[in-house]
Amino acid sequence: MTSIASVTLEVADLAAADRFYSAAFGLGERLRLRASEAPTSGFRGFTLSLVVPQPADVDALVEAAVRAGATTLKPAAKSLWGYGGVVQAPDGTIWQLASSSKKNTGPATGRVDDFVLLLGVEDVKASKQFYVDHGLAVGKSFGSKYVEFAADGPVKLALYKRRGLAKVAGVSPDGTGSHRLTITADAGPFTDPDGFAWTTASENASV
Predict the structure, then answer these.
(1) Are 71 and 88 in contact (CB under 8 A)?
(2) pLDDT bucket at 187, cuts 50 / 70 / 90
(3) Strand partners, 42
């Protein structure tokens, strides 16, 4: 089964981005950075999500991100599905910080249970089939709205309608130019129907 080893964010200021992510999230090898001046504007068509055990962990991540320079797009709050908030890193990447739990069972644990890449796509069914053809196994599927693939690696992958994902993130769905994202997995290299680039670990190391 295809597994995602890491995601690489392409950033304008590599040193600043490294300082931010080290201070805010500390995700290690799962998140990589590469300098890029590729033109991009508006919504880049994806979000990254950190799923944590309880609300205290969400609050701790939000506070750390804002302290390091992030902008709050949606303040952390309870919802039907749990508790979460959305922030935007200084490099423009949107992060969802969430827990399925609405109540704390103790102090913040500092643990991240899941690191999820959510791609906003135009046609969920078509993209789902594309990824199945490239070796990914479906974990959960809700028709043409949402697909979550079974994870056998450090990063999970899910598909969402682009407009729906933008709404969840609290931004306009409009955007042009580069996604500023490369996905490293054992299935690459290829580019999906929405322009997201996948590469292998050996190729990414040589870039």
Answers:
(1) yes
(2) confident
(3) 175
Q: Three-state SS string across the chain, please?
A: CCCEEEEEEEECCHHHHHHHHHHHCCCHHHEEEEECCCCEEECCCEEEEEECCCHHHHHHHHHHHHHHCCEEEEEEEECCCCEEEEEECCCCCEEEEEECCCCCCCCCCCCCCEEEEEEEECCHHHHHHHHHHCCCCEEEEECCCEEEECCCCCEEEEEEEHHHHHHHHCCCCCEEECCCEEEEECCCCEECCCCCEEECHHHHHHC
Residue 205 predicted with pLDDT over 60? no
What is the rounded distance in angstroms from the CA atom of residue 30 to the CA atom of residue 3? 12
Please name the residue that has the structure tokens 């949606």: 74
Query: At residue 206, does pLDDT exceed 50?
Result: no
Query: 32: closest CA among 4, 63, 2, 3?
Result: 4
Q: List the one residue out of 130, 181, 200, 153 whose CA is nearest residue 3.
A: 153
Structure tokens at 31: 């998140």
Phi then psi for residue 76, to 5 deg, are -60, 135
> For residue 202, what pLDDT band results from cuts at 50, 70 and 90?
low
Long-range contacts made by residues 201-205, C-beta under 8 angstroms, separation at least 24? 201/5, 201/6, 204/6, 204/8, 204/32
Mean pLDDT of 185-195: 91
